[in-house]
Model the fold of this input.
Amino acid sequence: MQTNRWIKYCKRCLLPEPKPDLPIDEEGICGACRSYEQRKGIDWSKREQELLEIVKRYRSQNETNYDCLVPVSGGKDSHYQVIRMLELGLNPLCVTATTDHLSEIGRRNIENLKKQGVDYIEITTNPVVRRRINRLALTQLGDISWPEHLTIFTIPVRISVQLNIPLIVWGENSQHEYGGPAAAVKNNVLTRRWLEEFGGLLGLRVTDLIGQDGIEPRNLIQYTYPTDDDLARVGVTGIFLGYYLPWDGYSNALVSQAFGFETHHTVIEGYAVNYENLDNIQTGIHDYFKFIKYGFGRATDLVSMHIRRGRLTREDGVKIVKNLDGKFPWTYLGVPIDNVLKQIDMTLDEFIEVCDRFTNKNLFVCDSRGNLVKDKDGHLTKINYDNMK
Done:
């Protein structure tokens, strides 16, 4: 067995050094933990006042248009965003870019969000083309969710331009909770540059898809960000609500549940919680590829957030992660993986071959020939789960 390599982890949470754009300083503390530290010095009353000034500036003066646009998925955070906008007396337009493989609970939560009393637009891209892009993105990038992570940013902005709604209210800047370059962490506005660097494009341009598997330019309209001229004409401004209000996924879930948001009946596979990523059956595959590429999964993200907030000790966090993180995604929300692979015309053997091709062997136990060691259920073993050799 080759187990002589070593993964370095943040000493405060459990994020690992292989995570892209995650700085770990000389004291062994990661950028996400440093970002959370800085919250203690934030004057949230001042930030809230800034938010009130922004919504006052963009509120429709004659009530002939919407006050803002809120991109939503139906999840706990988008419920929270809409609830807060309604509390401010705003008239938001909610826009959903439909997920790749919508779950039953995801549909119910979307319908519940509509019941809060909002106008709602749901855009579904051509499912035939979407599945081709899912397969291309999985085999070329190791990210089956690439088209979804693109359209959740492009579609709301396109609607904003088309309906002349300047203010877009996003949720949290992911660089705050999950770590990233300092400039991105400090940002409170979502721009084209943010999308291109941190919005999940992974170096693949939309135009690169043209000509692959019969994909034509006309198939990619909803995947395309508006032009700079269009953005300037409307004056589109996209703010992160998490910059102005204290942001916490767990408390967002509690607030949302009080307004009818539905959680899963048990802990979600690989998650340690029952309130995250309930809408897309493909998420299990997406999270697994993060694990095999970088050595951590969604349980690590969630446990680390709870550790920072003092809800969980780091010691218990390690136990949870070792038990839940990175299992082969045989099911997600109880749906077998075969159901997902069938939609993208891929066999299980083909999928496993793609998995092995994207797996970073420096992070997992291999045999003397350099082959990945898997147990009877196809699970890998990380070389270490904490700062120990």
